[in-house]
Write a structure and sequence with these properties.
Two copies of one chain form a homodimer. Chain A is mostly helical and 211 residues long. Chain A contains nine helices and no strands. The interface between A and B is large, with 60 and 60 residues. The structure holds a DNA duplex (30 and 30 nucleotides).
Chain lengths: 211, 211
DNA sequence: CACCTGAAGTTACTATGGGTAATTAACGAG
DNA sequence: CTCGTTAATTACCCATAGTAACTTCAGGTG
């Protein structure tokens, strides 16, 4: 009833609407973005994100930034979740082949849970997001590289390989994720086991490890 | 002279122009696409490809298909080049750690030579191209998996890991490529050497292999 | 040779989405 | 009370993927 006289809804002119401040920060927008991407797939639009967050496009740009930056922020979250899951999976255990399998499987499970988000974040074709893709990887590789280096050093092995290995392993995990996501792969746990074989003993090593 | 009265050039109406058939097939368009991508970066447009090929957009769609299909076709070519380079690098040699290094280095070199093409082909965020990305990988993994399986079987080792390994290795190579492309990585040959260490002996194996 | 008919092109258009400009309301300072 | 600054909205621009409408060529048929 408020002011029905002032034309309830038809043809609003531009301008800030009545009502107090918006209480929506970047985090809330990212939450909305995840919901939209989950629902609309990796092609979800910024506009849709704004609507889901109950705001308008320019606010998204003000709070989060361009699409590339949005993808970046979401990549941060996803990487954090993966690192987290990995840490929990390894909690306390010594580093061994068994814990390596768990590490890989935990990563695959996280991606399976966030299928579309993974595709959104690893997709993107402009130069901006191409480097963004690398950025996503870096967020995962940095802690991994640190862990590897520490472990290798403690074991008296060459530790200069850590960074290369970290990128390689993350790439391996991303491709495995894509494969698993798309069905067409065997059971994720089997895949994790195979990859653990490869990473742990190498191509030349240890025959007969079927399971 | 023809019909100068009918306005020589301004405001051509739509329609097929005079002159014989176009002699431009899909291959020629893909060649043009590679040139444009090389020059304009991974964000190159279909229109630009058409212009470079000396034709118009609908012809591109008629001969090659949508953007996703274009990327797919280019992925085929790139994968073929990589497989080719790898075969040449390994020609005749027995499979060994040294030849593994060569295999990796050869792949990195191909990507470095076609930086933008690689980004174009591995980019893309719609669901279509996401599965396309997997398709690209498959083109590389299929021969690799076959080779691995054969080799493992001959060596009396478990060969059911071949497919998982192939995807994992291709993922590792793609991420390494991205890293190398973006500068910020050490010398490609060093990276190849590190990854060969990982793949050959595994994380647990052989201390002290520095170079 | 006149005349259809389908294939092969072109220009022109639509639709969508990223990103920004123009515009207006709220709010705090003088 | 007024006024400038800030925060929000609607409306717009522009690029690009993809398609429709339209026009010419080629070849067969009377």
């Amino acid at each position: 009833m408020k002011q029905t006289d002032a034309v309830t809804s038809i043809a609003r002119r531009p301008g800030r609407p009545p009502g107090g401040h918006l209480a929506i920060d970047a985090e809330a927008i990212l939450d909305a973005a995840e919901r939209v991407i989950e629902h609309d797939g990796p092609g979800a639009s910024i506009e849709a994100v704004a609507v889901e967050a109950g705001i308008t496009k320019p606010i998204v740009y003000a709070r989060v930034g361009s699409r590339a930056e949005l993808a970046n922020a979401l990549a941060d979250r996803l990487a954090a979740r993966m690192v987290d899951a990995a840490r929990r999976a390894l909690a306390g255990q010594a580093f061994s082949r068994a814990s390596l399998t768990e590490f890989i499987a935990a990563n695959l499970r996280v991606v399976l849970t966030h299928r579309n988000l993974f595709l959104y974040v690893t997709g993107g074709s402009t130069e901006q997001t191409a480097l963004g893709r690398l950025g996503l990887a870096e967020r995962s590789t940095t802690p991994l590289a640190a862990g590897l280096e520490q472990w290798r050093r403690a074991a008296g092995l060459d530790s200069t390989v850590a960074e290369s290995w970290a990128f390689g392993i993350v790439g391996m995990l991303q491709m495995a994720s894509l494969w698993v996501i798309d069905e067409s792969s065997p059971d994720p746990d089997r895949v994790a086991d195979h990859l653990a074989d490869l990473l742990w003993w190498g191509m030349a090593g240890e025959p007969g490890r079927t399971t």
